[in-house]
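Below is a complete specimen:
___
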Amino acid sequence: MTRRLKQYWQQLRASHDARVLAGNFFWLTLLQVAGYLFPLITLPYLAHVIGVDGFGKIAFAAAVISWVQTVVDWGFVYTATRDVAQNRNDMAKVSEIFSHVLWARCCLLLLSFGVLLGLIYTLSSLRVYANILLVSFLILPGHILFPDWFFQAIEKMKYIAVLNVVVKLIFTVLVFVFITEAEDYIYQPVFTALGYLVSGMIAMWIILKRWKYRIVKPSFKAIVRALKEGADVFVNNLMPNLYNSFSVMLLGTTSGSFASGVFEGGNKFLTIVHQFQMVFSRVCFPYLSRRVEKHRIFSIVNVGIAVFFACILYVLAPMIVKVMLAPEFAESAIVLRILAISLVFMVLNNTYGINYLIVVHREQVLRNITIVCSILGMLLAYPMVKHYSYVGAALTVLMCRAMIGICVYGYAKRVQRRMALS
């Protein structure tokens, strides 16, 4: 056994793909640390200073902006990553893909801003949150300029990881300096937006000046083609908002910002753990786009990690909430325990949907599964949230993630069996 392990280790060290995957895993982990550990550091401070009400307003705005961000991202995070990964040795082709995605996202951003303004001044339930919504929207221009999907596709994560850590550290310090009372909650999305903007500007300099990729002249036909190619993945990314973000929005409008704050208190920890696990998935996505036969090993490891973290979150939920949040967030432990179970189903969807069905160009099936389950979730959301508040929202999210995860897993297994027989 020792000799066999030694042979495996020597093979891994000699493999270029293994070294690239290991390096990208390290740097993408560092990137996620910058994105989630720094907010986690500020979480106890913000919970005490701005309270559940301020926390709820931020959560409500984030839920609305997540819809807009999904539109702006379209399906490019996966389809463009796949296409660049498969053409990464052709600099002209990569420049073309990068440019068309950039122009398409800018168009979607302008369109989304117009729609958001119209909704704010039409719906009184949104008008109450106008300031925090508009400030939170400022995150998106920097989000577009910071194309982490591109660095992921060419498997060079080192640059943006180091950049992100430095920038996030600076703006984390600013949170402690400028947010000193409950009314200062609006500065939190301001600092997040500034962090993205600074990171994005430096990232674009690296891509265009250091690596010599080009932004080509926008072509209407090329932009439309890019949108069509990413449409199925866009729908797949958008539809979960019907039960996820929609549940938070319902909480804000039917139960108030306190209920939204309690839900977000528990959801925050699940989101952090899930995003850290997504590091492994995102690192492997370009590799699986080239070597889909390695999916079995990836699935065993990824799902195993999910089960482990789900158990940890479920058992330690009361302690986590007690240590990290203020006493008024005590009920967030119930939310965290419910959502911890959903982690396994989220990873099933990611493992067999994004990292398999998209890789083998079965986006339409993944889209259809997500549409049906998300519509069912939206129908469940209103009665569940109305009668059970934040607990109902958490149960809705759990049931929908379970339906999607199980259906995606079942279909992916059918595809794998067919491909094995062909």
Remarks:
- The two ends are 35 Å apart (CA to CA).
